[in-house]
Design goal:
Order of helices and strands: HHHEEEE
Number of strands: 4
Largest sheet: 4 strands, antiparallel
Number of domains: 1
Strand content: 15-25%
Radius of gyration: 26 Å
Length: 136
């Protein structure tokens, strides 16, 4: 049987113990960075969809005003503009129905979304909001 001093100096298994101590923070950092990247992507896609919808609504409104019989404009009214927004958004966040309205600046589109950040011990909801206005 080993004496106590030999037992305390024995370093077999120390690498495994150090690896176990470093592994969890490293994995947490990696998954945190992945979630942050997906959140940035969702924010970018939400902004793009809002801007594209505002531009589509303004240009379609002008086309319908100039040609009253023009019924194939992609964003000829609020409902088709909301459908256009849904086709443009490709992010990971859950999006509510956008608000499409005429404003002093032209056609304004406002959209909100929620992104769920969930890890083993951490869960949070992040609210996203994007606004765009395109002159008519």
């Amino acid at each position: 049987m080993k004496s106590l001093s030999i037992w305390l100096r024995d370093q077999q298994g120390s690498t495994a113990a150090e690896f176990a101590l470093v592994l969890m923070p490293t994995v947490g950092l990696i998954f945190g960075l992945i979630h942050f990247g997906v959140l940035l992507y969702s924010t970018n896609r939400l902004n793009f969809a809002v801007e594209a919808t505002a531009r589509c609504r303004a240009t379609s409104a002008n086309a319908v005003t100039a040609n009253p019989g023009y019924t194939t404009a992609p964003c000829r009214d609020t409902t088709t503009a909301q459908q256009y927004f849904t086709s443009q958004y490709q992010g990971a966040a859950t999006v509510s129905t956008p608000t499409v309205q005429s404003a002093a600046c032209g056609w304004q589109v406002i959209a909100t979304a929620t992104y769920q950040v969930s890890a083993a011990i951490f869960a949070r909801t992040v609210n996203l909001r994007a606004t765009a206005c395109y002159p008519s």
